[in-house]
Amino acid sequence: MHYVPASFLQFEADPAARGSDREEDLQRYSFWPLYLLAGLVGLLLAGDQLIGWINAPAWLAWQKPFGFRLALIGAVLGGARILYQTLDGLFEGKIGADLALTIATLAAIILGEPVVASLVVFIALVGESLEGIVAGRAHRALNQLFELCPKVVHRYRPDQDLEQDLPLAEVEVGDLLTVRPGERVPVDGVIVRGKTEIDQSALTGESWPVSRQEGEQVHAGTLNQLGGIVIQVEKIGGETTFGQIVQLVAEAIQKKSPIERQADRLARLFLPVVLGIAAATLIVWRMRMGYWSAGWMPALSVLVVACPCPLILATPSAVLAAMSWLAKRGVIIKGSEVLERLAHVDTLALDKTGTVTRGELQVTRVHALSGIEEGELLRIAAAAERRSEHLLGRLLVHEAESRGSVLPTPHESQVFPGQGILSQFAENPFGETKEGAGAIVLVGNAGWIEEQSIGLSREVRQELERA
Question: How far apart are CA 270 and CA 305, in angstroms?
């Protein structure tokens, strides 16, 4: 109700930012003082009620009209924060629920109802704490995106043929960086040496790796799966595609939806209406009873009951929770306005094949030629991929083992990034051959197979065209 993290706009959407800087950034959004204050007010309120139940001695209680001391202390401590926010908003020309809470709290204290005042303050602090928890989660979701970029990179010096490790923040446009297999690409750049396969699922959601070779682009946050490559830096930090996505998430989290803007407008109209109803209640009771004091409690009740604004509390919390939940799962929505419109969507259009998948590759069919059994063909291919780290290679191994196949381990394997794998077996485990004779198995794309002087039959070519 009181805190919506608009300061997310200042969030440093730069993957090159040092880890310590991000830790300091996270500390700025710490809500522990708020949580402790809410807990303290709750304990004081509970203690106040407990003292009343056990017939506490006189030295533990205030003389009327203030009731028990602990409730008053809680109302004053928690109310001071609300009062500060109210004055801060008034200086900026903003009128909202904070002012209504302040009026209700002060009225309850003046009328000798510190328990009511403390309860109003406690409810407000609990609501604000809930917003803080959700905002903290949203901020941590942004930090998790930063983990997709390495903190240390390998700068390559071709004149000395050496690599130098340095922080990502010190990289400049034009530098040459080495990206080893299994590492994530730290910047946007172009490959100047080597070929590999890149997992771009962090950016595109596509689980199928793409082949990349000299002269082709790679992006920050993607995973280099196979061969080592050297890239020339073209974009760094917030200028990269990855940095722009992080900034998009930050803006989406803080941007208000139409219902939030409507709630703000209602809050500005809410206070005059509530004050008017409270004043009318006081006048009606004065006219009926003949004295003013008869209407103070009913008027106060109007202020207290109307203060906790469910719409203002619930809307930001729901939007923040939804945005952070989606961000953790790789779903990027440009603003809560788009999120709200999803409730009215009745048609969904998808690109590419027009299908929704789980993001996991599966073997759906094994088609064997030349009389070999499908299970044996799968076993041979999986055995060749036994030492491979390629996504498709691991898939074949998993599928063969799940079918109960026993896979021999190749004596030696040579990976050709983006093309295939050549595995040698000391002994041929796939058929009857001369004793001591080994076997060589090639698994890869058709072009690479032909480059190895292995001709493809007409039947094979026809099947490839149908696939």
Answer: 13
351 noted as active-site residue: yes
Q: Residue 83: is its pLDDT beyond 50?
A: yes
Pairing mode of beta strands 420-425, 412-416: antiparallel
Contacts of 265 by beta carbon, 8 Å cutoff, 6+ apart:
none
Q: Given pLDDT bands bounded at 50, 70 and 90, which one contains residue 189?
A: very high
- What's the mean per-residue pLDDT of the chain? 77
pLDDT in tens, 266-322: 767 777 888 889 899 989 998 888 888 788 878 877 877 776 556 556 666 677 677
Residue corresponding to tokens 């996504």: 391
* Spatial CB neighbours of 455, under 8 Å, sequence gap ≥ 6: none
> Which CATH number applies to 152-242?
2.70.150.10
CA distance readout (Å), 288 to 64, 294, 295, 301, 303: 27, 9, 9, 18, 20
When pLDDT is averaged across residues 111-119 and rounded to a whole number, the result is 82
pLDDT the model gives residue 348: 80
The order of strands in the sheet holding 196-199 is: 210-212, 196-199, 223-224
The string of DSSP letters for 73-115 reads HHHHHHHHHHHHHHHHHHHTT---HHHHHHHHHHHHHHTT-HH
**What single-letter amino acid sits at 3?**
Y
CATH classification of 374-466, choosing from 3.40.1110.10, 3.30.230.10, 3.30.1490.20, 3.40.50.2000? 3.40.1110.10
- Return the closest-CA partner of residue 1 out of 133, 138, 130: 130
> Is residue 210 within 8 Å of 216, Cβ to Cβ?
no
- Catalytically annotated residue among 161, 165, 346, 351: 351
Tell me 219's DSSP state: -
Any long-range contacts for 442-447 (C-beta under 8 Å, 24+ apart)?
442/384, 443/381, 443/384, 443/385, 443/393, 443/396, 444/416, 444/419, 444/420, 445/419, 445/420, 447/419
Domain boundaries, the chain: 31-146+256-341, 152-242, 374-466
- What is the three-state SS of 394-434? HHHHHHHHHCCCCCCCCCEEEEECCCEEEEEECCCCCCCCC
- Amino acid 437 reads A
Is the model's pLDDT at 129 over the cut of 50? yes
